[in-house]
Amino acid sequence: MSSKEIIASRAAEALTPYSIINLGIGIPTLVANYLDKEKYYLHTENGMLGVTSVDEEDIDPLIVNAGKQPVGEGVGASYFDSASSFAMIRGGHVDAAILGALQVDEEGHVANWSVPGKDIIGVGGAMDLLVGAKKIIITTNHTAKDGSSKLVPQCEYPVTSNRIVDMVITEHAVFQWSEEKYELIEVMSGSSISEIEEKTAFSFKVHPSLLQKEG
Predict the structure, then answer these.
(1) What's the rounded Cα separation, in Å, for the pair 42 and 49?
(2) InterPro entries, alphabetically (predicted)?
């Protein structure tokens, strides 16, 4: 299983059945592969509730998610305009949003929409989801392509929102926001606390149960 699939499968475990979920672009889209289609309701900000995967031969070019990827319709799926979709988000009707990240800092902030000096199409729904969704889960590789940590003391890229991210999942670790600090609550298979400390630039605490295991 690739690192992205490991992250996506763990994110699926963090979701509550029969909840409304919004999946961002990139690793978050893979989460759908690990969800029971009858127990989760996938929402996309361009105007659909009841998103499912679709076989290549059944693709309808007019049915896409916010990332322009072809999607299918679940039983009972509904359509609405973008304004109504964002009203759902801003009104607190999305139970969880799973988003990618360029960086997450130790204050709980995420940067995931802009790299200075590079052209962008727009922020999309990231800001609204960070403000309106009840739970925010970040799925990201632990380090960037140059080997630098994506978990940093302070975001160097423009912060998407002041909302604190509830959970961060990488191929090495699961962090959860707890008492004004991230807490390492799970070490992924094949990793160790020492490796995570080496690859993480922000400060964090370790759940006592993990220290007992390594001790």
Answers:
(1) 6
(2) 3-oxoacid_CoA-transf_B, CoA_trans_fam_I, NagB/RpiA_transferase-like
